[in-house]
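Fold it.
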Amino acid sequence: MTKLTRTSLSNLRDLTAARVSLPTTGNSIATDEVLSFRRDHALARDAVHAELYLPLFAQRLIAELPILTDAGIVVIQLRTNAPNRATYLRHPNLGRTLHPDSVAMLRRSPCDLAITIADGLSALAIERNAVPLLAHLLPQLLANAWNLAPIAIVQQGRVAVGDEVGANLGARCSLILIGERPGLSSPDSMGAYLTWSPGPDRTDADRNCLSNIRNGGLSPKVAADRLFRLLQVARLKQRTGTSLKEGAIELDAE
């Protein structure tokens, strides 16, 4: 029987879920590791192809976040110009703009913040992390006099669609929660992107991002606290992006 060989760096595996220092049998990766890789690869593929069912998710938001009803914040369901998942994956640009029918649903009214939730590349990430994050973030925002637009949930959405939603709602700031591209150890990571003065001309340089929001990464509660501090500083300085470094956030929070 071939002996299982562990490397001198095997203890690194206690510190990370990354595939480092894999045990071997002879010249091959150990069978358990090969099977584990195939399982995680299948989970990542499933996460990419899964779709967020908007009516059910809207019901869940209202049921699990009663603060929305108390504050009079409604949930609206939108779609992008990507007609289905397969097209969305092949043509990323279609996920960055709203379908004309969805644009017509938005009513411009001055407000501080528009929150958008989009499936992105992992509906699983949204299903697991969006509600817990909002449960911590919304009370902080409302307690600090943030005037919130209706919450928009978007099917087949990319990051930029949050800025289009924010601009059409007349928001001073846009926040989008979106499923990130799955990794082999993290099929459920959610990202959060923040844009001051959102609009179609905005680029990644104009946004701040928190990544890897999930249990096992940046927990939804910790992410909500960091987002709230970021939003407070963005409102104070009226900018986001490369000119709003996270180090400055801590400085301003003191």
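The first strand starts at residue 4 and ends at 5.
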